[in-house]
Every structure is written in C-alpha cells, then in structure tokens.
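User: quick one - fold this with N-(5'-phosphopyridoxyl)-D-alanine bound?
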Amino acid sequence: MSAEPKVFLNGEFVALSQATVSVLDRGFLFADGVYEVIPVYAGKPFRLQQHLDRLNASLKAIRMAPVMSDTQWADVLTTLLQSHTQSDQSVYIQVTRGAGSNRDHQLPEHYQATTFAMCQSIVADSLNLIAKGINAITLDDIRWDWCHIKSIALLGNILLKQQATDQQCTEAILLRDGFATEGSASNLFIVKNGQLITPPKSHYLLPGITRDLVLELATQEGIPCIEREISEQQLLTADEIWLTSSTKEIMPVIELNRRPVSNGQPGALWRQVSHSYSQFKDQLRRQK
Ligand code: PDD
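Assistant: Sure. Structure tokens for the protein plus N-(5'-phosphopyridoxyl)-D-alanine:
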C-alpha cells in the first residue's frame, strides 16, 4: 500500500488526512485568499519565478504581504516533489488571510495567513485527448472586474465552466461588452491570416504564465504576434482558436458554438507552436 501523500500546511509537512484548517478561516468563510498552479516536469518546476511573482502580485492586490521568500517556496516544492521526480505533477498553492476570532467582513488589522501546498499528477492521457481538439461555447462573462487576481473565489468560473459541460463542451470562452477575454480557466488566442492574436493584459483576464510562454515561442518561430482586443465577430471567424493554461497547455478549439473552426481540425500554427512547447518541456526535464 502506498503511503498517504504529504501536503504542506503552515510550515509543516503532514499527511493529507491530517491537514485541517479552522472553520473560521477567511478562505472558508469569504474565499479571502489567492492561489497558484505550477506544473512540474520530471521534478523541474515550470517558470517557478513567474508563478511566485504572480502569487505575490495577487497577495498584494488583496492587501496581503508575501508569506514566504522565493527560496522558502522552492524548498517546499522540492520536499513535496521528492517522491515524484519521474512523473509530471502540478503543485497547487493556496494562501488565505487565516482565521479570525469570529466572522467579520472587516479586514483584520493582524492576521496569521494560512499557507497550503500539495501536488497532484498531470495525466498524459487527458493531454493527448485535448491535442485532438476541444469544443467550446461563448458565454457572457458574469465574473467581477478584477480577474487579474488569481483569487480562490472561483464560483463565477465554475458556473460558467459547468454551463459549457452541460452542453458537452470542454471550455467556455467569455465575452465582455462584445469582446472575447479568456476562457473560464484558460487564456485565449486566435489565428487570423497567419497572425497570432491574444487580448492584452487587463483587469478582465488572468495574466497567464502559459500565455506569456506561447507568445515567446511563437515569436521565436517567426510567427507575427499581436496583443489586441478580439471582438466576438473576429472570434467567430478566426482561422484557429487556442486556449492555454498550465495544466492543459495549448488546447486547439476545433468547434465553437457547434460550428467547426475552419476545417474542424487542429490548425497548422497550433501544431508548430505546440511542438516547440513540447520541446521546451523536454529541455526543462533534462536540466540538471
Ligand atoms: N487556471 N485564466 C483563468 C481564469 C485561469 O483560471 C487560468 C489557469 C488561466 C491560465 O493561466 P496559467 O497559464 O498561468 O495557468 C487563465 C488554473 C490552471 C486553475 O485554476 O487550475
């Protein structure tokens, strides 16, 4: 029988079943906290610095201080990943404003953050399935206006994703004032006439780490990249549509609102950039 996985909670490594937090934790009562998801390939964290920078930016945005130094975080990941150096994992980090003495909307003057991290497997089979192409629907974005914060308050995202699932779709592409911003748990790219287009960073979307890498790789491949708003019409008439995230990588959308995107197959530019993304991961795996 394999040992129960260890998770990190408030400075200690404990068995998952032993990791408990107070019912007064503001994360539980108010979703008062932020999170990160960091892919790890053969024990090597993917863009760790960028993920930690975004974690600290999210904390700052909700008026919290960094909970640990980058080196301390790196040590936590190393310990969590000790027994997973061969397989691909994702590390989930969550930081909340901790437990007060009662339920009070007012931010406490002093708080003790709750800091949690665990790892789970990235399943290669589901990535292979995604590479065949996914279907998506467009939905109006019902979330708040501070989507650049990686907040644990994900009910909007979850209910949007569920509407997609109800219609046998993998993702929902969100529209705000007639413009497509991102997916319910992913960033958006379209290809039109050989150009790769993605909405600029703003309060309406999460500054995705995968998004940044895709832009870098596409630029290296000589593909012209533009950051500009994408209207609903431009989305509906795109040559290719991609959705990106740390755990799902680059998803080619082959059907949108029940209609095929171009010929209903993953596109040529997707194949090219997806190939260089795989090479990037392989290089990381080989790093000493
Ligand atoms: N979500 N936009 C939203 C709303 C997201 O939830 C995510 C990722 C992204 C992509 O960001 P990145 O490339 O840094 O993963 C964009 C994670 C994976 C999640 O909630 O599990």
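One thing worth noting: The mean pLDDT is 96.
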